[in-house]
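ok so I'm stuck.
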Amino acid sequence: MQRKPREPSFVEALGHVQTDRRIDILRQIDELGSISKAARAVGVSYKAAWQAVDTLTNLSGVALLARAVGGRGGGGRC
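replied:
not stuck anymore, here's the structure
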């Protein structure tokens, strides 16, 4: 009986170790409601957090976040 080829893991599919940190950023955004707070929690810059979100969004082909303008009276999840 032939074995079915193993499906690549999520980490293998994206092809690099930074995957876990990118997923952590998404989890923290969900938990904290802010990309800025998520970046601080994961230990990356705000810019790096946005780049991670953009990369994952491009790979998934769908919007992963609802974006809202931050600052006074803004920010947080929609």
